[in-house]
Amino acid sequence: NAGVTQTPKFQVLKTGQSMTLQCAQDMNHEYMSWYRQDPGMGLRLIHYSVGAGITDQGEVPNGYNVSRSTTEDFPLRLLSAAPSQTSVYFCASSYSAQFQRNTIYFGEGSWLTVV
Amino acid sequence: AQSVTQPDIHITVSEGASLELRCNYSYGATPYLFWYVQSPGQGLQLLLKYFSGDTLVQGIKGFEAEFKRSQSSFNLRKPSVHWSDAAEYFCAVRSSGGSNYKLTFGKGTLLTVNP
User: Fold this and answer.
1) In this structure, are strands A64-66 and B109-114 parallel, antiparallel, or unpaired?
2) Do B90 and A42 touch (CB under 8 A)?
């Protein structure tokens, strides 16, 4: 992968707990996004950002918050974890939000289990 | 809204056999199309992409894909499969213009390779 770092890689949460999945890239990418991957569902877009201070909702935003205070970081917050949020989460980024030809690079994923 | 359909959830082939994974998309104009591969427990790696021009595109690891506008398809092929190709494969579509930066994935095709 080309410099998209996700932490933690594995996490177990209890229902109702909150946590933040961290995503950082060192490629000066404008576009960053979060996906969740569930068996048989492919990857679904949660939230995305086209630059610092700008975020928008994707396909499945409920239960998640994001912010983009710097170009490098795009954390995903679970406010009150639910078992339905058990999933694998991927952060992805690309150089320019204005140019859809830019390759989107993915992090290695964060495995989250909510019990 | 853009969408991607991968009709085959699971495909099994013998090592050395040829492979074709199907992908159909829905989009109002010519989209940007991608194939990603995901090995177990790993992130997504870009195999190839189509933006415009030659409808047969070559990718890494000996894969190729052909864009057929009349069939709204972007099928992935490989003439001779290796055991290391066992993985899950995702087709994805992205808008070729406007302010829609989202990358939409199909639900994936799991490839098993028999020795």
Assistant:
1) unpaired
2) yes
